[in-house]
Amino acid sequence: MSAQDYERILRDTEKLTPDEQQRLAREIVDRLREREWQGKERPRWEDMEGTAPYPLCGEDAQEWVSRTRQEADDGRRVR
Predict the structure, then answer these.
(1) In the chain, what are the domain boundaries?
(2) Residue (of 26, 23, 24) closest to 9 by Cα position
(3) From first to last of its 79 residues, what are the pLDDT tens digits of the chain?
(4) Angle in degrees, CA 40, 47, 31, rounded to 5
(5) What's the rounded Cα separation, in Å, for the pair 68 and 5?
(6) CB-CB contact of 24 with 16 (8 Å)
(7) What integer pLDDT is reported at residue 66 of this predicted model?
(8) How far apart are CA 4 and CA 10, in angstroms?
(9) What per-residue confidence (pLDDT) applies to 51?
C-alpha cells in the first residue's frame, strides 16, 4: 500500500462517527487476530500451568483473596 492510499484511508475514517470508528477498529483487530491463528492450534489454558513463578506477585493467592475480601468488607463498613 502506498503512503497516499494510507493517508486517504485515514482521512476517510475521520468522516466516520466515533462509534463507527470504534466498530471499524474492532473489526480490523478481530481480523488480524483470526489471521494470526489461521492454520495454528490455539493454546489451551491447561498448557499454561506452571509457566508463572510462585508466588506470581510476591503474595500467596489465598492470602490475596482473604486480604482483598477484608479490605472490601472494611470499605463497606465505613460508609
Answers:
(1) 3-40+53-78
(2) 24
(3) 899 999 999 999 999 999 999 999 999 999 998 888 777 887 788 888 888 887 778 888 899 899 999 999 988 876 5
(4) 35
(5) 51
(6) yes
(7) 95
(8) 10
(9) 85
Share of the chain above pLDDT 70, in %: 97
pTM over 0.90: no
Q: From residue 28, how far is each of 4, 31, 39, 66, 67 by CA, in Å?
A: 20, 5, 19, 41, 41
Residue 13 near residue 21 (C-beta atoms within 8 A) = yes
User: 4: which 3 cell numbers?
Assistant: 497516499
Cβ neighbours of residue 2 under 8 Å, at least 6 residues apart? Answer: none
Please choose, from the candidates 43, 63, 44, the residue with its C-alpha nearest in 3D space to the C-alpha of residue 54: 63
